[in-house]
Amino acid sequence: MAFKSIKLISLLAIIATALSSNAFADSVKIGSLSAVTGPIAKLVPPIINGSKLAIKQINGQGGVLGGKQLELIVGDTGCNAQASVDAATKLVNVEQVVAIVGALCSGATIGAANNVAIPSNVVMVSPASTSPEITGLNDNDLIFRVAPTDAYQGKVLAKYVKDKGINSVAVTYVNNDYGVGLAETFTKAYKSLGGKVTGQQKHEDKKASYRAELATLAKGKPDALVVLAYAGGSGLTIIRQSLENGFFSKFVGADGMRDKVLFKLGANALKDKLLIISPTSPKNKARSAFEKAAKADGNDPNGPFVAQGYDAAMMIALAIQKAGSTDRKKISAALRDIASAPGVEVGPGDWKKAVDAIASGKSINYTGASGPHDFDKAGDVGGVYADFIIKGDDFVENSILN
User: Fold this and answer.
1) Over its length of 402 residues, how does the chain's per-residue pLDDT go in tens digits?
2) Contact, 132 vs 151, CB < 8 A?
3) Which fold has domain 151-281+384-400?
4) What is the CATH number of domain 10-149+284-372?
5) Could you tell me the residue ranges of all domains in the chain?
6) Which residues pair with 225 in a beta bridge?
7) How would you list the strands of the sheet with 143-145, edge to edge?
8) Cα distance between residue 51 and residue 104, in whole Å
């Protein structure tokens, strides 16, 4: 009886192992390095849902590589470089992902890229990292992004501020890769347009008080305070304390400040007092298709970097399909192939169309929910910006700036 039980247990173990192996063989894992905790935590769930929507559509239209299902494995960076290294290590070495969507924060992308992705030949496609430092990475053509660099955003922001008749500003920026890079490009461009920077200070994130720094910046009596930070980190506190102490009454922010956490100040506290720009996309067929699908999926298609989250996942999947393999080394070259003309035009939701074209030996050219993504030699893309105004309890796109 005992011998038969042992044989039965052994047989069940073999069957379980076989089933597990088949389940693994029938799926392809991609990672998502997302800041589930940290200063942009409130922005992150819709971005992840954007990636999940792409995967849901792909799996619903037959999957990748002849029927394999895609899985998205989420790792939390906390918007922190070291935590990103730890999360990326787990994704690559334990989960065995073949590519990564992310990271989101620039420092997290740089940390994960240098310490994990590049040594392991793993492609990363960031939906939201904008630091100019990423452009210069020695990355073996593995690090890409579908959000434009701050080398461009800084110039757009400077022109926008000057066009609004704001001729002098003080600048406070968070001491990380995002804040430092954006502050540098903004101030240089703003001065070249004739604007005056009356004061400039970097600050540490998540301090209880910024009153001393704000009092110093206010002495120059500028027209506005430019806050280059994450609203969920230092941004909210800086604006609150500026208003409470009468230091500033007009504020300017970039993409990191487009966060509903600011509405904790009250529904009308920032109305007509806050100017914000953020990446957007042209109004076209691709954007409309994505917005319709996202709304049907219960997600806000116009949230910060949600469309980019979708595009990053879709483009990785297209690269896997184009490569005809999950070989990490082949995905990078294939990513460039699917993103550039000439080729069959495909967009959001067009997975089967893309698969059929690839199977026929045709090239494809993906035009994304957040715009076309023709990568330059550094893996960067161009972009479109808009200004966002407060209407009720939301930020609403007002006008295209470029």
Assistant:
1) 343 333 333 333 333 333 333 334 589 999 999 999 999 999 999 999 999 999 999 999 999 999 999 999 999 999 999 999 999 999 999 999 999 999 999 999 999 999 999 999 999 999 999 999 999 999 999 999 999 999 999 999 999 999 999 999 999 999 999 999 999 999 999 999 999 999 999 999 999 999 999 999 999 999 999 999 999 999 999 999 999 999 999 999 999 999 999 999 986 899 899 999 999 998 899 999 999 999 999 999 999 999 999 999 999 999 999 999 999 999 999 999 999 999 999 999 999 999 999 999 999 999 999 999 999 999 999 999 999 999 888 999 999 997
2) yes
3) Rossmann fold (3.40.50)
4) 3.40.50.2300
5) 10-149+284-372, 151-281+384-400
6) 170, 251
7) 69-76, 27-34, 99-102, 123-126, 143-145
8) 13
Classify residue 61 by burial, with Cβ atoms within 10 Å: 0-12, 13-18, 19+: middle
Residues 6 or more apart whose Cβ sits within 8 Å of residue 184: 132, 154
Read off the tokens for 223. 């027209």
